[in-house]
Amino acid sequence: MNISTIEMRDASKERAPPYVQEKPPSYDSFYGKIKHARDTSDGKIDFLKEAMKIAGASVGFIVCLGLALAIPIACIVIGVRYLDDCPLERFIPIYLVVSGSATILPMLLKICMSCITMFSSDQDESDSWFACSAYTVVMLLGCFLLSWYIAGNVWVYSNYDDLSTNSTSENYCHPTAYYFSFWLFTSAYILAGCSCVVSCICWCFSLCQ
């Protein structure tokens, strides 16, 4: 073997890029946390619970929750604006104001809890106390909102046939206030129905596997 061949081999070795071993996904990332939960969960139900906790502490969830604040804010604005413009059922604009105000607080608490979970690696005693207090407030407001939601359904749907857009009529209610309330309830039922259908389909696929 001559000297030129040896020199060419040495040069090719020097030009070869070093081997870099690929690192596994970090558990600090969203994908890593989901993968870790899937590997350590005791079943599909347990994995679903852990995945919901991880998603609830993600940046995307906080952003979506912040955008969703537009709905209760719109309820408050429309309810205050047309508070005296619904003799058909005076509780319809009141419903909008109360439900919007009672919905904003638990949403803000959920954003705060998600931020604490996301930015604090080790929760101290004060964080645990805040989370327990926040969950208690959310549960109490949830019970109130459920009862208030049922009452709102009665006020809106029971007066649908009697609605008049004539401002001089006793059955008058401003169209913006009434139809906003009507479609608020109707959209909630549509979304609930779609969620049930998707959940049933996913459940059937999981049983077939």
Short description:
By secondary structure, the chain is an all-alpha fold. It has a domain at 69-208. The protein has 8 helices and no strands.
What are the main properties of this structure?
single chain; mainly alpha; 0% strand; globular
- The whole-number mean of residue pLDDT values reads 76
Topology order in helix (H) and strand (E) letters: HHHHHHHH
Distance between the termini: 62 Å
* Cα-atom radius of gyration: 28 Å
Largest sheet: none
Poorly predicted runs: 19-27
Topology (SSEs and partners):
Blueprint (H helix, E strand, L loop, with lengths): L2 H13 L14 H11 L3 H13 L2 H10 L1 H12 L9 H29 L5 H33 L17 H34 L1
Give a verbal description of the structure:
The chain has 209 residues and is an all-alpha fold. Helix content is 74%, strand content 0%. The protein has a domain at 69-208. The N and C termini lie far apart (62 Å). The model is unreliable at 19-27 (pLDDT under 50).
